[in-house]
Amino acid sequence: MRANTWSGRNKVEVRDVPDPKILNNRDAIVRITSTAICGSDLHLVDGYVPTMQDGDILGHEFMGEVIEVGSGVPGEKLRVGDRVVVPFPIACGACAACAAELYSCCENTNPNAGIAEKMFGHPVAGIFGYSHLTGGFAGGQAQYARVPFADVGPLKIESDLTDEQVLFLSDILPTGYMGAEMCDIQSSDVVAVWGAGPVGQFAMDSARVLGAAKVIAIDKEPYRLQMAERAGHIPVNFDEVDVRSTLLELTGGRGPDKCIDAVGLEADHGSAHIAAYDRVKQAVRSETERPHALRQAIMSCRSGGVVSVIGVYGGLLDKFPAGAWMNRSLTLRTGQCHVQRYMKPLLERIERGEIDPTRIITHTLALDEAEQGFNLFKNKQDNCEKVVLKP
Amino acid sequence: MDLTATTTIRRPASEVYAFWRDLENLPTFMAHLEQVRTTGDRTSHWAAAAPFGTDVEWDAEIIEETPGEKIAWRSTGDADVPNAGTVRFVPAPDGVSTEVHVVIVYDIPGGAVGKAVAKYFGEEPHQQLDDDLRRLKQVLETGEVVRSDGAPWGKRARKEFPQRPAQPLSDAELEKGADA
Ligand SMILES: [Zn+2]
Ligand SMILES: [Zn+2]
Predict the structure, then answer these.
(1) Domain C-terminal end among A334, A359, A380
(2) Do A56 and B137 touch (CB under 8 A)?
(3) Residues A328 and A343 in one domain
(4) Mean pLDDT, residues B54-62
(5) Using an 8 Å Cβ cutoff, are B68 and B44 in contact?
(6) How far is B42 from chain A (nearest CA, A)?
(7) For A47, which of A203, A352, B36, B140 is 20 to 30 Å away at the CA?
(8) Number of domains chain A contains
(9) Could you tell me the pTM of the whole model?
């Protein structure tokens, strides 16, 4: 089959690779009809997440048709011919984490748990196409994928919704939603979202769906801010205005009640000298993150507010404003999305027309054009927000 | 050399105990064990793979057991690598799970076998036992040892790194299996 692979720092390459086969009884093989490029793929491709290998198949947002199921998958769960969206964390459904619906912390699905444990203290779930730290599972930017624990993860789509309407249930829609849900939104809340990329856009839509009074989008790309504005959110361009004073202005001096960091480890704003400090430390790997968005969110949030982190962090950061966090009674909440928990309720919201996931798609390309898609997305060319690939 | 490791498995102690007490199950999750053959009610014959094509074998006997709670064993006769172990099964505070506490003691001998075995166990012995218990947990909670494309050979922990790329195996690689 054809598959998009990592082939060295900042290089992807669509190659011919073997077709996937059933390795465990609870596997299924899915013929992929749509897959997407995610912001966290960029962190893998540019080498900031360790343990990538030449030839690793990328991609953790995909959907398609089941063409084979292992002997351990009960027919009432999944059959050949079912149309499914596959969640990015691989979860066993049986461990203590899964029992608590903490699917991205599944205790059984990462065969490289020993390595993840050294990095994170405790291991995390296996993830498709997301480095050997998260298990070394082949990803879904391919014609076919092997899906372990197929009786637990995949969501059957039984209506005639298009791929574009449901594909993002695999990751970015639930991720954005969880970011808003962790804020415990009240109807009087002003919610500020750092990052108007795909996850940020869905965090904004989710905050509104959950009843926020106002939603503020913070980014520097005019086209991303316009996209947020068209969806009814208030744009703030950090290249043009001072973020803190603008947020105070918009909130009568209180600061946003709830703040969502949808940027993560490669934020590129903040004060110039701290930016330079982070760049140097990141370059010598003594700090792995450039956490401007997180620092700014903590400093801006109203006292007693919630800072919800859904941007991806991989390792260590410093200059964390612990004083602001502690002295002003802030709550910090975070997590890789427990996608399995949100897929069904969000599918229902899509069916009821409360959320339109298609609004962020700017490019649809063939799988063989994956490299072009990565470049468009990475360099924010041609107003690229979200790339869908068709194998 | 003393090794200790512990894990929590979301199954009742009676079940975890029964799985372990059937000693022939041990090689399904313990990386270095090739085979355990039951030879009597409390006796068994063990075979483990060591590096450089060396194999070590020994007889063992269960010296103490409390059903659902504890099993202790030790090697007998002139084992190449005299060893002993204890595993305790303790109900976890959640009322559902079982804590598995393992202690294994190896007596690393001199000579060529001793050197090879010391080297084999010397790299990351605690990591190996931790990984063994992780696979025990996988087997009991999910039914199988979980395989990925980068680490497709289940319990072959010593092949954990370097891994193969995260892409499907070819038919030829599958055929050759873990020794390819
Ligand atoms: Zn993603
Ligand atoms: Zn699990």
Answers:
(1) A334
(2) no
(3) no
(4) 89
(5) no
(6) 32
(7) A203
(8) 2
(9) 0.93
